[in-house]
What does this fold into?
Amino acid sequence: MMVEAPARGQVVKRILIIEDERPLAEAVQYSLEKEGYEVDIALDGERGWEKFTGGSYDLILLDLMLPSIDGMEICRRVRSSGSTPVIMLTAKDSDVDKILGLEMGADDYVTKPFNMRELVARVRAVLRRAAGEGEAQAAKGKQLRAGDIVLDSERHEVKVGGRVVEMPLMEYRLLELFMRNPGKALGREYLLNKAWEGDFYGQTKTLDVHIRRLREKIEEDPANPRHIITVRGVGYRFEAAEAET
Ligand code: CA
It folds into this structure.
């Protein structure tokens, strides 16, 4: 049976703050927790990235200038691993073009020093927008198509070239993740977290096995995949149309 995600409405939203000024991070955490959010803090880029990949967050509040891995790099990685919204915390208005532009693609930003009430309002707005997009996608996304592959999430069925293909739940979930995010490089940790719903212990080898079996089922030539493309150092990218050469 299809395991549908529970309605997100009543679920407590989880926010990750990546900010190296501890007093600021804690003040923001306090304000957001008062609003009913669940909030984690990471004080440098590397720990922030670990927390992000190891947990499932609804929103990231990200400082631009960070030790170990800077905010710009984190933002890029978050963008390429899925659709978690990012609000940047920045000291200078002059960074804004870069932050909201293609280079980073953050959803919003606030300039330091900021008013807590304003920050909370931005957080609420970005989360509302993200939820709206999610629902719109779910409504139209019951049948996903890519070339001759059709995934029907209502029937919990995959057809390739009109023929029903049986697959274990993990492969089905992976394929659905891929088909909902065509053209995006999806990180290994992201895939594991989403498909296994956090119930895994860093067994990234398992992921490769599932990908191999999935390729055998959906690719014309599994040794030369056209749909599930390996992205070295990141994970995998799904191409909906057969990659043109
Ligand atoms: Ca900083």
